[in-house]
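Weekly sync, protein design subgroup
Attendees: M.S., D.O., the rotation student, P.L. (late)

Item 1: inverse folding check
M.S. brought a backbone from last month's batch and wanted to see whether the design step gives back something sensible before we order anything. D.O. pointed out we never logged the input encoding, so this time it goes straight into the notes. Structure tokens as presented (484 positions):
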């Protein structure tokens, strides 16, 4: 069965409503304007091609690949036997869902994140385990065992499982090291049942699934049980998990329904390892860990750009805050085999999606040439030290540059076979490409530019060009400096 693809076409990209700016301090701030455009700047076919390669080389029975930007589906592709509505076990993709349950109770002041577990489970109130907090349970720093069959024993309750864990020896003193596992989250799940007075399944439905319209996600792996595996027992679909990720993308809210406080979302995306030694981590790339999610990328100021919730059976759900996007990879394979392909997919998204605050406009010209792809390096936040632009797919080792203008790009002025969206009288920054046709121009955004707008467009000498100008021009970029 070949791939089914839903990929909206268009020449521009979507940007969320933003405060726009001019990059000159005396120029007054412009009013906020909402732009409704197509969701991608460039071609998403490389993104799909990487998944196709993984599907073939890993001999996957099926794969669902989904990418959303600004809350709109940019790509939905199925491979093999999998359908769009495929429901599968997501293993440790469950951890982010479980963390959201606990944090929702914290938001409701039913417990505090740094409360000792012993406040709610008396068997943890004495000895070394008295130091264990709810935070440690979800940060893999409690010292409790990592994995144990007690977390999936269908003959006992979640509360009874937590009591059995209390009899097990600690691996290290609480809060002294990081060791990835499921058992400590299981204990915290029992606390959630105690403070809410509800069984886990009901609690998850009331706090997370119901408000988000997640109709198929549940913790019934292996059938209905009073001892659901909190850290790795959920089943879900690409549609359901996208709803959850979209809530995180919007700071804890979706469709005007508040599920988590913004501070709780930030907590999920904050490194929990710190300076602690790592006893064991399953992540093959050694990335940092948040609450239920791996923190794959950070900007120069340490803010999380991309976080991923992987599952051992080949599930990945990711939140790309840099591009205001979410994604789901739903398949069955050992996750470490699929992980490298997924990272290539993220690289493809860097090319195809404009970062937050950046909008690509118009067309590359002339139409007969392979267009160079001009894009920003990261989101355009006030005071962003690692901001800049890059070009990919331009003529190799070619002289050229980028025009820079104040205010938004124009409607487009035909010049020979090119279209200029930025006045050619604007300042030109030289940008010579390397033998691969790539070039980079970094420029930090100083503080104090929030609300200002500028535009950029590049052009390069194109030896043997199919056009008449001897040049090939990129699309234009509109850059809106966002709040810090």
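Designed sequence read out in the meeting:
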């Amino acid at each position: 069965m070949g791939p089914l693809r839903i990929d909206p076409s268009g020449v521009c990209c979507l940007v969320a409503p933003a405060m726009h700016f001019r990059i000159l301090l005396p120029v007054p701030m412009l009013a906020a304007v909402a732009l409704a455009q197509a969701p991608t700047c460039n071609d998403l076919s490389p993104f799909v091609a990487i998944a196709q390669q993984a599907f073939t080389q890993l001999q996957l029975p099926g794969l669902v690949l989904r990418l959303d930007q600004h809350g709109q589906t940019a790509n939905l592709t199925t491979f093999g036997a999998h359908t769009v509505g495929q429901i599968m076990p997501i293993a440790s993709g469950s951890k982010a869902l479980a963390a959201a349950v606990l944090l929702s109770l914290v938001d409701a002041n039913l417990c505090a994140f740094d409360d000792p577990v012993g406040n709610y489970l008396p068997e943890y109130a004495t000895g070394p385990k008295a130091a264990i907090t709810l935070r440690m349970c979800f940060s893999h720093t409690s010292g409790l065992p990592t994995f144990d069959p007690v977390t999936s024993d269908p003959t006992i309750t979640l509360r009874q499982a937590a009591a059995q864990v209390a009899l097990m020896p600690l691996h290290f003193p609480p809060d002294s090291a990081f060791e990835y596992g499921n058992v400590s989250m299981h204990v915290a799940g029992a606390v959630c049942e105690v403070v809410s007075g509800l069984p886990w399944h009901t609690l998850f439905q009331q706090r997370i699934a119901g408000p988000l319209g997640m109709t198929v996600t549940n913790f019934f792996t292996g059938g209905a049980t009073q001892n659901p595996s909190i850290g790795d027992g959920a089943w879900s679909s690409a549609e359901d998990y996208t709803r959850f990720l979209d809530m995180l993308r919007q700071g804890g809210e979706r469709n005007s329904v508040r599920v988590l406080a913004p501070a709780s979302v930030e907590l999920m995306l904050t490194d929990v390892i710190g300076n602690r030694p790592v006893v064991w981590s399953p992540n093959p790339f050694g990335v940092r860990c948040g609450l239920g999610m791996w923190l794959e990328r950070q900007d120069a100021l340490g803010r999380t750009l991309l976080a991923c919730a992987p599952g051992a059976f080949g599930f990945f759900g990711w939140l790309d805050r840099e591009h205001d996007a979410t994604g789901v990879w739903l398949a069955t394979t050992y996750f470490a085999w699929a992980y490298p392909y997924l990272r290539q997919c993220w690289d493809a998204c860097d090319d195809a999606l404009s970062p937050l605050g950046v909008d690509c406009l118009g067309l590359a010209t002339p139409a007969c040439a392979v267009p160079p792809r001009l894009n920003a390096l990261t989101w355009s936040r006030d005071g962003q030290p690692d901001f800049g632009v890059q070009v990919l797919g331009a003529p190799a080792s070619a002289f050229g540059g980028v025009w820079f203008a104040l205010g938004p790009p124009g409607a487009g002025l035909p010049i020979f076979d090119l279209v200029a969206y930025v006045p050619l009288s604007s300042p030109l920054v030289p940008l010579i490409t390397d033998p691969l046709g790539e070039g980079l121009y970094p420029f930090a955004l100083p503080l104090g530019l929030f609300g200002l707008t500028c535009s950029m467009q590049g052009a390069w000498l194109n030896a043997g060009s199919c056009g008449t100008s001897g040049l090939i021009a990129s699309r234009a970029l509109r850059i809106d400096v966002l709040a810090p």
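Discussion: Confidence is low (pLDDT under 50) at residues 1-39. The domain at 358-480 is CATH 2.60.40 (Immunoglobulin-like).
Action: P.L. to compare against the previous round before Friday.
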